[in-house]
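Fold it.
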Amino acid sequence: MVREPPAELLPLLLGAAIVMMGVLYYYSLVQERYGPSIFAMTAYLALGRGAMAWTLFRCSRGRLQMRMFSVSMALYALVTMAHAVAVVVLPVPATVTAHHSGQTLGLMLSVIFVCVQGIFYQLMFAGAVTESVHEQAQLDHVCGVLNRRGIECALLAELARTKRTRVSLTVMLVDIDHFKTINDLFGHAAGDESLRAVVRGIGKTIRVYDTLGRFGGDELLVLLPETNAEGALLTAGRIRQGVRAETGLTAASELTLSIGVTCCASAEEMIDVLARADIALYEAKRQGRDCVRLNLGGMPEEDRAGGGLLGTVATQDGLAIAPVGFAGEGRTV
Protein backbone atom coordinates (compact mmCIF):
# COMPACT_ATOMS: atom_id res chain seq x y z
CA MET A 1 0.00 0.00 0.00
CA VAL A 2 1.35 3.39 -1.02
CA ARG A 3 1.94 5.85 1.75
CA GLU A 4 0.83 9.49 1.68
CA PRO A 5 3.20 12.06 0.17
CA PRO A 6 5.77 13.50 2.59
CA ALA A 7 4.25 16.55 4.27
CA GLU A 8 7.54 18.47 4.22
CA LEU A 9 7.28 18.89 0.42
CA LEU A 10 3.93 20.68 0.54
CA PRO A 11 5.22 24.06 1.91
CA LEU A 12 8.02 23.98 -0.68
CA LEU A 13 5.64 23.41 -3.57
CA LEU A 14 3.17 25.99 -2.26
CA GLY A 15 5.90 28.61 -1.88
CA ALA A 16 7.24 27.87 -5.36
CA ALA A 17 3.72 28.20 -6.80
CA ILE A 18 3.29 31.62 -5.20
CA VAL A 19 6.63 32.79 -6.59
CA MET A 20 5.77 31.48 -10.06
CA MET A 21 2.39 33.24 -10.06
CA GLY A 22 4.11 36.47 -9.03
CA VAL A 23 6.64 36.19 -11.85
CA LEU A 24 3.92 35.41 -14.39
CA TYR A 25 1.83 38.35 -13.21
CA TYR A 26 4.73 40.81 -13.35
CA TYR A 27 6.14 39.74 -16.73
CA SER A 28 2.71 39.39 -18.34
CA LEU A 29 0.90 42.53 -17.15
CA VAL A 30 3.56 44.92 -15.83
CA GLN A 31 6.53 44.29 -18.13
CA GLU A 32 5.88 41.99 -21.05
CA ARG A 33 8.83 39.61 -21.34
CA TYR A 34 8.36 36.12 -22.63
CA GLY A 35 11.62 34.61 -21.30
CA PRO A 36 11.12 34.99 -17.51
CA SER A 37 7.57 33.65 -17.78
CA ILE A 38 8.79 30.52 -19.59
CA PHE A 39 11.59 30.07 -17.06
CA ALA A 40 9.20 30.39 -14.09
CA MET A 41 6.71 27.88 -15.47
CA THR A 42 9.36 25.41 -16.60
CA ALA A 43 11.30 25.57 -13.33
CA TYR A 44 8.12 25.00 -11.35
CA LEU A 45 7.25 21.99 -13.50
CA ALA A 46 10.75 20.60 -12.92
CA LEU A 47 10.36 21.10 -9.17
CA GLY A 48 6.96 19.38 -9.16
CA ARG A 49 8.24 16.42 -11.17
CA GLY A 50 11.27 16.12 -8.91
CA ALA A 51 9.02 16.10 -5.83
CA MET A 52 6.86 13.43 -7.45
CA ALA A 53 9.93 11.33 -8.25
CA TRP A 54 11.16 11.60 -4.65
CA THR A 55 7.72 10.65 -3.28
CA LEU A 56 7.45 7.64 -5.59
CA PHE A 57 10.92 6.47 -4.62
CA ARG A 58 10.19 6.76 -0.90
CA CYS A 59 6.92 4.86 -1.29
CA SER A 60 8.33 2.15 -3.56
CA ARG A 61 9.51 -0.15 -0.71
CA GLY A 62 11.28 -2.48 -3.11
CA ARG A 63 8.67 -2.40 -5.90
CA LEU A 64 10.69 -2.43 -9.11
CA GLN A 65 7.96 -0.86 -11.26
CA MET A 66 7.49 2.08 -8.91
CA ARG A 67 11.23 2.65 -8.62
CA MET A 68 11.61 2.68 -12.40
CA PHE A 69 8.70 5.09 -12.59
CA SER A 70 10.43 7.36 -10.06
CA VAL A 71 13.71 7.20 -12.01
CA SER A 72 11.96 8.16 -15.25
CA MET A 73 10.19 11.01 -13.47
CA ALA A 74 13.52 12.22 -12.03
CA LEU A 75 15.07 12.21 -15.52
CA TYR A 76 12.05 14.09 -16.81
CA ALA A 77 12.56 16.66 -14.04
CA LEU A 78 16.22 17.08 -15.02
CA VAL A 79 15.31 17.55 -18.69
CA THR A 80 12.68 20.12 -17.70
CA MET A 81 15.19 21.99 -15.55
CA ALA A 82 17.70 21.93 -18.41
CA HIS A 83 15.01 23.47 -20.59
CA ALA A 84 14.50 26.20 -17.99
CA VAL A 85 18.24 26.93 -17.92
CA ALA A 86 18.33 26.98 -21.73
CA VAL A 87 15.67 29.69 -21.69
CA VAL A 88 18.04 31.90 -19.71
CA VAL A 89 21.20 31.08 -21.67
CA LEU A 90 19.89 30.78 -25.26
CA PRO A 91 17.97 33.39 -27.25
CA VAL A 92 14.26 33.41 -26.46
CA PRO A 93 11.71 33.30 -29.33
CA ALA A 94 9.51 36.32 -29.74
CA THR A 95 6.25 34.38 -29.40
CA VAL A 96 5.08 30.96 -28.33
CA THR A 97 4.36 29.92 -31.93
CA ALA A 98 7.73 31.09 -33.28
CA HIS A 99 10.01 28.30 -34.55
CA HIS A 100 12.86 27.51 -32.15
CA SER A 101 15.14 24.47 -32.03
CA GLY A 102 15.15 24.39 -28.23
CA GLN A 103 11.37 24.30 -28.09
CA THR A 104 11.25 21.53 -30.68
CA LEU A 105 13.77 19.41 -28.78
CA GLY A 106 11.99 20.02 -25.50
CA LEU A 107 8.65 19.01 -27.00
CA MET A 108 10.12 15.81 -28.46
CA LEU A 109 11.69 14.84 -25.14
CA SER A 110 8.44 15.57 -23.32
CA VAL A 111 6.50 13.28 -25.66
CA ILE A 112 9.09 10.50 -25.19
CA PHE A 113 9.04 10.80 -21.40
CA VAL A 114 5.24 10.86 -21.30
CA CYS A 115 5.14 7.61 -23.31
CA VAL A 116 7.78 5.96 -21.11
CA GLN A 117 6.04 7.06 -17.93
CA GLY A 118 2.75 5.75 -19.26
CA ILE A 119 4.32 2.33 -19.67
CA PHE A 120 5.79 2.38 -16.14
CA TYR A 121 2.48 3.61 -14.75
CA GLN A 122 0.67 0.67 -16.33
CA LEU A 123 3.26 -1.74 -14.91
CA MET A 124 3.00 -0.11 -11.49
CA PHE A 125 -0.80 -0.32 -11.59
CA ALA A 126 -0.69 -3.98 -12.64
CA GLY A 127 1.76 -4.73 -9.82
CA ALA A 128 -0.48 -2.97 -7.28
CA VAL A 129 -3.50 -4.95 -8.46
CA THR A 130 -1.55 -8.21 -8.24
CA GLU A 131 -0.35 -7.35 -4.73
CA SER A 132 -3.88 -6.44 -3.65
CA VAL A 133 -5.24 -9.73 -5.00
CA HIS A 134 -2.47 -11.61 -3.20
CA GLU A 135 -3.27 -9.84 0.08
CA GLN A 136 -7.00 -10.46 -0.29
CA ALA A 137 -6.32 -14.15 -0.99
CA GLN A 138 -4.63 -14.40 2.42
CA LEU A 139 -7.40 -12.66 4.40
CA ASP A 140 -10.33 -14.26 6.15
CA HIS A 141 -13.49 -12.45 5.02
CA VAL A 142 -15.33 -13.05 8.32
CA CYS A 143 -12.69 -11.88 10.81
CA GLY A 144 -10.53 -9.58 8.69
CA VAL A 145 -7.32 -11.34 9.78
CA LEU A 146 -5.07 -13.78 7.95
CA ASN A 147 -6.66 -17.00 6.81
CA ARG A 148 -4.97 -20.39 7.14
CA ARG A 149 -2.84 -19.88 4.06
CA GLY A 150 -1.74 -16.44 5.23
CA ILE A 151 -0.95 -17.43 8.81
CA GLU A 152 0.99 -20.50 7.66
CA CYS A 153 3.07 -18.28 5.35
CA ALA A 154 3.71 -15.95 8.30
CA LEU A 155 4.69 -18.91 10.49
CA LEU A 156 7.14 -20.16 7.87
CA ALA A 157 8.73 -16.70 7.73
CA GLU A 158 9.01 -16.54 11.52
CA LEU A 159 10.51 -20.04 11.69
CA ALA A 160 13.10 -19.01 9.10
CA ARG A 161 13.95 -15.93 11.17
CA THR A 162 14.18 -18.05 14.32
CA LYS A 163 16.56 -20.41 12.53
CA ARG A 164 18.81 -17.49 11.58
CA THR A 165 18.75 -15.62 14.89
CA ARG A 166 18.01 -18.49 17.35
CA VAL A 167 15.60 -16.17 19.17
CA SER A 168 12.61 -17.92 20.71
CA LEU A 169 9.24 -17.94 18.96
CA THR A 170 5.94 -18.73 20.67
CA VAL A 171 3.01 -20.28 18.83
CA MET A 172 -0.49 -20.24 20.36
CA LEU A 173 -3.45 -22.25 19.15
CA VAL A 174 -6.63 -20.64 20.49
CA ASP A 175 -10.00 -22.39 20.50
CA ILE A 176 -13.39 -20.88 21.47
CA ASP A 177 -15.01 -23.29 23.89
CA HIS A 178 -18.41 -24.70 22.87
CA PHE A 179 -18.49 -22.58 19.73
CA LYS A 180 -20.82 -25.05 18.01
CA THR A 181 -23.35 -24.48 20.78
CA ILE A 182 -23.36 -20.74 20.04
CA ASN A 183 -24.09 -21.46 16.37
CA ASP A 184 -26.83 -23.97 17.22
CA LEU A 185 -28.59 -21.80 19.80
CA PHE A 186 -28.20 -18.30 18.36
CA GLY A 187 -27.42 -18.87 14.68
CA HIS A 188 -24.33 -18.52 12.52
CA ALA A 189 -24.53 -14.72 12.49
CA ALA A 190 -24.11 -14.69 16.27
CA GLY A 191 -21.29 -17.20 15.91
CA ASP A 192 -19.50 -14.98 13.39
CA GLU A 193 -19.92 -11.96 15.66
CA SER A 194 -18.52 -13.94 18.61
CA LEU A 195 -15.56 -14.92 16.46
CA ARG A 196 -14.97 -11.29 15.47
CA ALA A 197 -15.21 -10.22 19.12
CA VAL A 198 -12.54 -12.75 20.07
CA VAL A 199 -10.33 -11.50 17.25
CA ARG A 200 -10.78 -7.90 18.45
CA GLY A 201 -9.94 -8.89 22.01
CA ILE A 202 -6.79 -10.73 20.95
CA GLY A 203 -5.79 -7.92 18.58
CA LYS A 204 -5.96 -5.36 21.39
CA THR A 205 -3.79 -7.56 23.61
CA ILE A 206 -0.91 -8.66 21.39
CA ARG A 207 1.93 -6.45 20.16
CA VAL A 208 2.06 -4.71 16.81
CA TYR A 209 4.67 -7.14 15.47
CA ASP A 210 2.79 -10.25 16.62
CA THR A 211 0.64 -12.04 14.06
CA LEU A 212 -2.93 -13.31 14.34
CA GLY A 213 -4.78 -15.53 11.89
CA ARG A 214 -7.75 -17.85 11.63
CA PHE A 215 -6.43 -21.38 11.48
CA GLY A 216 -9.76 -23.02 10.78
CA GLY A 217 -13.31 -23.00 12.13
CA ASP A 218 -13.17 -21.53 15.64
CA GLU A 219 -9.40 -21.96 15.99
CA LEU A 220 -7.02 -19.00 15.83
CA LEU A 221 -3.24 -19.05 15.56
CA VAL A 222 -1.11 -16.40 17.29
CA LEU A 223 2.61 -15.92 16.59
CA LEU A 224 4.69 -14.17 19.26
CA PRO A 225 8.28 -13.53 18.12
CA GLU A 226 11.01 -13.09 20.74
CA THR A 227 8.79 -14.54 23.48
CA ASN A 228 9.76 -17.37 25.83
CA ALA A 229 7.46 -19.77 27.70
CA GLU A 230 7.03 -17.48 30.70
CA GLY A 231 6.04 -14.52 28.55
CA ALA A 232 3.78 -16.76 26.47
CA LEU A 233 1.73 -17.89 29.48
CA LEU A 234 1.42 -14.32 30.74
CA THR A 235 0.28 -13.18 27.29
CA ALA A 236 -2.22 -16.04 27.12
CA GLY A 237 -3.71 -14.93 30.43
CA ARG A 238 -4.03 -11.36 29.16
CA ILE A 239 -5.68 -12.65 25.99
CA ARG A 240 -8.36 -14.45 28.01
CA GLN A 241 -8.99 -11.30 30.04
CA GLY A 242 -8.99 -9.09 26.95
CA VAL A 243 -11.53 -11.30 25.18
CA ARG A 244 -13.85 -11.18 28.20
CA ALA A 245 -13.55 -7.39 28.31
CA GLU A 246 -14.23 -7.10 24.57
CA THR A 247 -17.28 -9.35 24.60
CA GLY A 248 -18.63 -7.98 27.89
CA LEU A 249 -18.88 -11.47 29.32
CA THR A 250 -17.99 -12.55 32.85
CA ALA A 251 -15.64 -15.37 33.73
CA ALA A 252 -18.60 -17.70 34.34
CA SER A 253 -20.12 -17.12 30.90
CA GLU A 254 -20.16 -19.70 28.13
CA LEU A 255 -17.69 -17.88 25.86
CA THR A 256 -14.28 -18.99 27.12
CA LEU A 257 -10.97 -19.86 25.50
CA SER A 258 -8.77 -22.92 25.54
CA ILE A 259 -5.21 -22.11 24.51
CA GLY A 260 -2.40 -24.46 23.58
CA VAL A 261 1.09 -22.95 23.67
CA THR A 262 4.47 -24.12 22.45
CA CYS A 263 7.83 -22.51 21.73
CA CYS A 264 10.78 -23.06 19.45
CA ALA A 265 14.25 -21.56 19.29
CA SER A 266 16.03 -23.37 16.47
CA ALA A 267 15.44 -25.00 13.11
CA GLU A 268 12.15 -26.89 13.30
CA GLU A 269 9.55 -27.88 10.76
CA MET A 270 6.19 -26.13 10.83
CA ILE A 271 4.35 -29.43 11.14
CA ASP A 272 6.25 -30.29 14.33
CA VAL A 273 5.58 -26.92 15.96
CA LEU A 274 1.88 -27.03 15.09
CA ALA A 275 1.62 -30.61 16.34
CA ARG A 276 2.99 -29.57 19.77
CA ALA A 277 0.56 -26.65 19.95
CA ASP A 278 -2.31 -28.94 18.97
CA ILE A 279 -1.37 -31.43 21.70
CA ALA A 280 -1.29 -28.58 24.23
CA LEU A 281 -4.73 -27.42 23.06
CA TYR A 282 -6.09 -30.95 23.38
CA GLU A 283 -4.69 -31.12 26.91
CA ALA A 284 -6.39 -27.81 27.77
CA LYS A 285 -9.72 -29.20 26.56
CA ARG A 286 -9.16 -32.48 28.39
CA GLN A 287 -8.54 -30.56 31.61
CA GLY A 288 -11.98 -28.93 31.39
CA ARG A 289 -11.42 -26.04 28.92
CA ASP A 290 -11.13 -22.36 29.87
CA CYS A 291 -7.40 -22.73 30.56
CA VAL A 292 -3.93 -22.53 29.03
CA ARG A 293 -1.52 -25.42 28.55
CA LEU A 294 2.13 -25.23 27.49
CA ASN A 295 3.73 -28.17 25.69
CA LEU A 296 7.50 -28.30 25.30
CA GLY A 297 7.63 -32.07 24.93
CA GLY A 298 9.45 -33.31 21.86
CA MET A 299 11.52 -30.15 21.48
CA PRO A 300 15.27 -30.40 20.89
CA GLU A 301 16.88 -30.78 24.32
CA GLU A 302 19.30 -27.90 23.74
CA ASP A 303 16.37 -25.56 23.09
CA ARG A 304 14.57 -26.57 26.29
CA ALA A 305 17.71 -26.24 28.39
CA GLY A 306 19.25 -23.06 26.99
CA GLY A 307 18.47 -19.66 25.55
CA GLY A 308 16.13 -18.61 28.37
CA LEU A 309 13.26 -20.42 26.68
CA LEU A 310 11.54 -21.47 29.90
CA GLY A 311 12.09 -18.23 31.83
CA THR A 312 10.74 -18.79 35.35
CA VAL A 313 7.78 -20.95 34.39
CA ALA A 314 8.73 -23.78 36.71
CA THR A 315 8.82 -21.54 39.80
CA GLN A 316 5.71 -19.38 39.36
CA ASP A 317 2.66 -19.93 41.55
CA GLY A 318 0.11 -22.16 39.90
CA LEU A 319 2.50 -23.29 37.17
CA ALA A 320 4.39 -26.55 37.08
CA ILE A 321 6.22 -28.49 34.44
CA ALA A 322 4.56 -31.90 34.25
CA PRO A 323 6.55 -35.00 33.24
CA VAL A 324 5.06 -34.88 29.75
CA GLY A 325 6.22 -31.30 29.28
CA PHE A 326 3.04 -29.42 30.12
CA ALA A 327 2.50 -26.30 32.18
CA GLY A 328 -0.79 -24.54 32.67
CA GLU A 329 -2.74 -21.45 33.74
CA GLY A 330 -6.48 -21.11 34.27
CA ARG A 331 -9.24 -22.36 36.44
CA THR A 332 -8.26 -26.03 36.19
CA VAL A 333 -4.51 -25.94 36.87
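The chain has two domains: 9-137, 148-330.
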